């Protein structure tokens, strides 16, 4: 069993930055694909970014490309999402998730989920 705990959310003005962290329990963290997802009120959960086990492969949704950066530190069992130039439309609950798959962008392929952290961007 893997537990994921997100932190770093909060209220920020448009144009500001936040860094989300996802701390994982367990020894197999370095083998998981890690993803960040978000869900705004009334909308479906969507993938924001993903990173493979080595950090050598990443994915970004078009809406965040060039502004958000995903990374991981396997020695610390932690994944990160650096969010720059935040916009009001980035307001959502952000979730980190871990997948057994070598690579996946599909929500249903993610096996473990954190509880989520709220990000609110004011205009």
Describe this structure in words.
With 123 residues, this protein is an all-beta fold. The chain is 0% helix and 48% strand. The chain is built from no helices and eleven strands. The protein has strands spanning 4-7, 10-13, 18-24, 33-39, 46-51, 58-60, 68-73, 78-83, 92-99, 112-113, 117-122. Strands 2, 4, 5, 6, 9, 10 and 11 form a seven-stranded mixed beta sheet that branches. Strands 1-3-8-7 form a four-stranded antiparallel beta sheet, with no helix packed on it. Strand 4 (33-39) and strand 5 form a beta hairpin. The mean pLDDT is 97.
Could you say which overall geometry the principal axes of the C-alpha atoms support? globular
Number of strands: 11
CA-atom Rg in angstroms: 13 Å
Q: How much beta, percentage-wise?
A: over 45%
Order of helices and strands: EEEEEEEEEEE
Coarse structural class: mainly beta
The major β-sheet equals: 7 strands, mixed
Count up the helices. 0
Unreliable residue stretches: none
Give the distance, in angstroms, between the N- and C-terminal Cα atoms: 40 Å
Quaternary organization: single chain
Mean pLDDT: 97
* Residue share in helix: under 10%
């Amino acid at each position: 069993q893997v537990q994921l705990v997100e932190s770093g959310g909060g209220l920020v003005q448009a144009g500001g930055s936040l860094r989300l962290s996802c701390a994982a329990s367990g020894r197999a963290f370095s083998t998981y694909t890690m993803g960040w997802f978000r869900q705004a009120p009334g909308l479906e959960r969507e993938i924001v970014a993903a990173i493979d086990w080595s950090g050598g492969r990443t994915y970004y949704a078009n809406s965040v490309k060039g502004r958000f950066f995903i990374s991981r530190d396997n020695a610390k069992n932690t994944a990160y999402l650096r969010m720059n130039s935040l916009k009001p439309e980035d307001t959502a609950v952000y979730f980190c998730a871990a997948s057994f798959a070598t690579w996946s962008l599909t929500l249903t392929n993610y096996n473990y989920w954190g509880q989520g952290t709220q990000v609110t961007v004011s205009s």
